[in-house]
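Lab meeting, action items carried over

1. Structure of the two-component assembly. Owner: GW. Status: complete.
Input record:
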Amino acid sequence: MIKKKICLLGSFSVGKTSLIKQFVHGIFSEKYLTTVGVKIDRKQVETAVGSALLLIWDLNGADRFQTIRSSYLAGSSGFLLVVDGTRPATLEVAVDIAENLDRTMGPLPRILLLNKWDLRDEWSMPEEQISKLRDMGWQVLKTSAKTGEQVEEAFRALTEAMLRKEGPER
Amino acid sequence: MSRDQSHFEELRTLLLRPEQEHLEDLEARLLDPQRLADHVSRALPIAVRRSHEDNTLLARALSPLIEEAFKKSIRKNPKLLADILFPVIGRAVRKAVGEAWQRMLQQINEVLETRLSPRSLKWRWQARRSGRPYIEVVLANTLVFRVEEVFLIHRETGLLLHHKGIGAELTETEVVSSMFTAIQDFVKDSFRVDQESMLASLQLDDLTVWVEPGPYAYLAAVIRGHPPEALRQVLQVNLEEIHFGFARDLEHFSGDTEPFEAAQDQLDNCMVSQLQQKENKNTRLTGLAIAMLVAALLGWISWTRYVVHRDLTVIRETLQQEQGYRLTRARAAAGNYHIEGLKDPLAEPLESVLAGASLSRPVTADLQSYLSLEGSFLLSRVRRAVNPPPEVDLDLQDGVLVFRGKADVPWRRQTEKLLPLLPGITAWDLSGLEAAVDPIAEKNKQFQVEAAALENWVIYFNVNETELSDTLSPKIQEAAPRVQRLFALADELDKDIVLVVAGYSDSMGSEEYNLKISSQRARSVADFLVAEGIDPGRMLTEGRGSSGATADLNPERMRRVQLTVQIQTKP
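Predicted assembly:
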């Protein structure tokens, strides 16, 4: 069985926990987020290239990479960077985190999730920057934790990316 | 010449070509470091071995070099060395700790050896039977635990490599494993401990989580109860085995947990449990029986002690009150009581003195004789010595021996002589004694009177008269009862008497005739007395002729019969 540790990262109130709630039904209460700073859930994900058991570490919101507990990141195979589509500042945080991840942990699969797609009216994402990121090879998905839109796809895409990455090695 | 030369050159080339090529090759080998290295690498192992065989020069030359290289390597990546040494150091440390532990057990052993309880006796017996140290048995009996879950967790990712649990499998073991790792990290971060160290144990009421860390993976054992320190060793050994057997898989772990299915055995080894044997009904009954037995024994001992104490008290008090005994020691011996002391010969026998005491054991005695000066003993000793007549009363009044009653004179005289010789008698009073009449003396007197009266009795006969005429009969009648009385008295006094009936005659006839007539007269009287009932065997008849005649006696008084009483001495 293939198991993968992934982390959900992003600013405060971008909807990380809601995304997971939409995706899995966990056993731990959310109070861990505020006490220990992390809540972990698992989900078996099937993809075209195989299946994997994801251990999803939902880290407490952070506006700067430095405030993230590095020990929680250790051993991760992929990341979901979550952004609140209605707040452009959260995109900057996500990009900052991604850069730091690349520097400290090397290139690992990651997907940028522009969350709260259900609030399309209030949408406030700088499209220019998004397409620039896409050009740089970033995979970007518009998700809605509320309606579940693209949520499963996001997890599946990350899983696939992780499995593909290690594919040649196996 | 030039042609020659060139020819020569050509020839030389032809001739020496192989050599030339060989030389060039050698030169190339020496000058090209790559090729030289290839060459030397083949010879080096042999050369090193030779050098090592011949002397230690090479080793000495190389050692500083290797040392330096080693130091550099460690400085560069200390973790590498730690990871390499992990299985080795683990064993070494375990051995040292094991020895220290053994020593400590020994010490505890010695302390525990001195304590005693029914349970400890049982354990001691178990230890003796199994040849294990006593302390080990104690620990085994007291420590109760069960490893309920074992998690083999990848250290870096927190991913669960393998899991083993009792009963229903936890569905969320994966999450638990990760969360546990997260909490480990959280604790480490919070308390700023070394990143290599780990939270060794968590305690939640009855549940304990023990973490055994390794370089790539760690074991977390969920234990119910109180695990013994030895369990750590079990975890350690098995974690080391996993590191040894799965070194590559651990090092290059990328999420595939399949290889770790094979770690099943090691995890199984960790599923240790130690259940305390519940005391079943049987042992409880046995315990009860033993308790009752002990209680009974104690009861019996104290009852026996009580009885002995009571009996000895009775013996002491009885003999204290009994006159003629002086007790110096009384004790309980095996199966009996033994007393020592003094006893007056006149005292009551010990058996009868103690007869009423109803003692639980027989009494043996070692008693010396002594004379008691107590009143009753003085009196009985005096009585034994003087043998008083029944009419005499003896009494002690203020130390004075007082006699009262009737006693005859000879006894009184005898007593007066004896009294000063008796121990304990200092004063006496005989004034209360009246002189008593002696019945024998009285009878003797009577006998004397009767005998004298009989001897004064005389009967006179006429001339030539031998038969008792009617005139004589009143006189003879009067003799018979007197003789009867005298004989009766003689019998009472135990005197053997003979009544001599003597006949006399006057002096006128011849002597021969006189003897004849006198004996006839005695015979007549004797016959008459026999006729009256007197025993003829006690009479003696004698004819004494005229022998009793005197000058002044007239013939009428000479013809007579007289009686004499002769007392025979007994043979």
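2. GW to write a short summary for the group page. Key points so far: Chain A has one domain: 3-169. The mean pLDDT of chain A is 86.
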